[in-house]
Design a protein that fits this description.
Blueprint lengths: L1 H8 L6 H20 L14 H12 L2 H7 L5 H18 L8 E5 L4 H14 L4 E6 L1 H5 L7 E4 L8 E4 L6 H16 L8 H9 L7 H27 L3 H4 L5 E4 L5 H14 L5 H11 L6 E3 L2 E2 L13 E14 L2 E10 L7 H11 L2 H9 L3 H10 L4
Parallel strand pairs: 1-2, 1-3, 3-4, 5-8, 7-9
Antiparallel strand pairs: 6-7, 8-9
Helix pairs in contact: 1-3, 2-5, 3-5, 12-13
């Protein structure tokens, strides 16, 4: 939880082991209070600092590992106490997120695409604190303070607004990062000339060990960039073609219902042991509650939570030539089942799938394909970016 919080807040908690000891002393009794619904309701006072509200928001976003351990969501009153401990530790260590650039992502193209865009931008700008990915409706009523808005469309805001495509190539990412950094700071932080910086420092303060300072500055300036590159490289390890293998592709002329289509599409993943049968039932139950699984014309990506029966990351594809009715008057021809074990391993493949979903010619060729080999050839086109 602390590591997730550090990443979200763009800080490094000094003496983390001591803070862990304090947190564990609190969590032990809290574990039983939460598990057996013995917690009392506590409301955040309106007069608490803006920074505390922001830290509380980031703490709640980082609760996943604790909630998985306990088997229940962590209620606000318990997360507030945890925030008090973390916030107090930050004050003691002289840490603050108040002066960091805080950003939100606003995307009208649906929850799935919004989350992908949020993840992509968070890796591209590791020095920013990303608070939330929002729909336009949520953006209009958003209460936390922020400095920057990233969006795919123009918005009425008095904050800095940067417009971006939902999916950027590597070259576009580099250009976009430079554009944003030049606009925000007048320079690109990771491209600072260390020698020039040393000259400036030497004019103001004596340097007992100039070489040591230069090494420390070089290490600090490259740290965030290196981490982002490592994370991006890790996500690239699983391209679309590696997940949608020929054995996971099924061709059908027609199916009887949406539920049957999901079960047929997921069959190869059950057979290969990547998911359990209960994962299919979870997808069937959730599909009608989540219209955002439709990611492009005639293509949908049913999925459920990892704990619903995912053993290993995987994808499978069902092509239905005649289509199947998803909602009244709307038919789906391509169903891609997504089995995710976490929030990262499938992301690169999913971004490639999103690009495929919006390529009309290749999508229609896949729907009309006669063989699995034809479909694999089209998938391969999107698996090398």
């Amino acid at each position: 939880m602390l590591r997730l919080f550090e990443k979200s807040a763009c800080i490094y908690l000094q003496e983390r082991d001591k803070l862990l000891e304090h947190l564990i002393q609190h969590i032990k009794p809290a574990y039983y209070r939460i598990k057996f619904n013995l917690t009392e309701t506590v409301f955040l006072q309106q007069d608490v600092s803006k920074e505390f509200k922001e830290i509380h928001h980031l703490v709640k976003q980082s609760m996943g590992p604790l909630e998985e351990l306990i088997g229940h969501p962590v209620p606000d009153n318990e997360s507030t106490f945890i925030t008090m401990l973390v916030s107090g530790w930050m004050v003691k260590q002289g840490e603050s997120i108040d002066k960091k650039v805080k950003a939100i992502v606003v995307c009208p193209q649906g929850v799935s695409i919004s989350r992908l865009m949020f993840h992509d931008l968070k890796e591209l700008f590791p020095e920013f604190v990303f608070l939330d990915s929002l729909s336009i409706r949520d953006f209009l009523h958003y209460s936390l303070d922020y400095d920057v808005v990233f969006s795919t469309s123009s918005l009425a805001t008095d904050k800095k607004l940067f417009l971006s495509k939902a999916f950027l190539s590597q070259e576009e990412k580099q250009r976009f990062r430079k554009q944003v950094m030049m606009d925000m700071h007048g320079f690109v932080p990771n491209e600072i000339d260390i020698d020039h910086l040393m000259d400036i420092i030497k004019t103001h303060v004596p340097l007992p060990d100039e070489e040591a300072l230069k090494k420390d500055l070089s290490r600090y300036m490259s740290k965030d960039k290196d981490e982002a590159v490592k994370t991006y490289a890790a996500n690239r390890n699983l391209p679309l073609s590696e997940l949608i293998v020929p054995e996971h592709i099924t061709l059908k002329k027609s199916v009887d219902s949406w539920e049957d289509a999901v079960r047929i599409a997921a069959g190869p993943l059950v057979k290969s042991g990547k998911i359990e049968q209960r994962y299919i039932e979870a997808m069937v139950q959730q599909s009608d509650k989540d219209p955002y699984i439709v990611i492009g014309p005639n293509i949908a990506i049913p999925h459920a939570a990892p704990e619903e029966g995912v053993n290993e990351v995987g994808m499978s594809l069902l092509r239905i030539e005649d289509g199947v009715e998803f909602t009244e008057g709307y038919r789906i021809h391509l169903i891609v089942i997504i089995a995710a074990v976490d929030k990262k391993k499938h992301i690169h493949a999913l971004m490639q799938l999103m690009r495929f979903a919006h390529a009309e010619t290749d999508r229609n060729q896949t729907i009309a394909a006669k063989t699995i080999t034809d479909i694999r050839r089209l998938i391969d086109l999107y698996s090398h970016e």
